[in-house]
Amino acid sequence: MQEWKRDQELGPVDLDAIRDGVLLHGRQQAQGSDAQDIACGLYENGRLIAGGWGRTEFQRLYISYLWVRPERRGEGLGGATLRQLEAQALRRGCVDALIETLLDDAAALYEHLGYACIAHLHDFVPGFTRHTLLKVWKPRD
Predict the structure, then answer these.
(1) Core-most of 30, 31, 58, 116, by most CB within 10 Å?
(2) Cα distance between residue 41 and residue 100, in whole Å
């Protein structure tokens, strides 16, 4: 017997199965996936004050999250965190890095750090533009 479930009727295990199935299928199509989590965190007196998290795959750094405690923003910690992730990715053999943001100020910071806007979608969320930025260290063949 088949049965549709919607929204909250699906539990975390079901949602994980959907996500994992899509990722597995895509990676099987592309072949040669070497996906590996990448992360760094800056601590002060044992307290996390900045960090980043993403993955490296197919010689690309994908930055999913870049965060700085609100009271510590404007001190250059976001840029320092990004440079830490980039250094790790370069050691892994990555040739470029991809990051997205909905914040114009963050996009300007990434451009200042060598990223180029390759796409943007105005009003992705009302009042916000989605910026996709790429930094190339070595051109791909």
Answers:
(1) 58
(2) 19
Which token pair is 37? 């989590």
Contacts of 134 (CB under 8 A, 6+ apart): 96, 97, 98, 115, 116, 118
Neighbouring-strand partners of residue 96: 60, 136
- What's the structural domain count of the chain? 1
Indicate the helix (H) or strand (E) that contains 111: helix 104-112
Domain containing 119 equals 35-136
| pLDDT per position as a tens digit, 89-124 | 999 999 999 999 999 999 999 999 999 999 999 999
Q: Is residue 29 part of a domain?
A: no
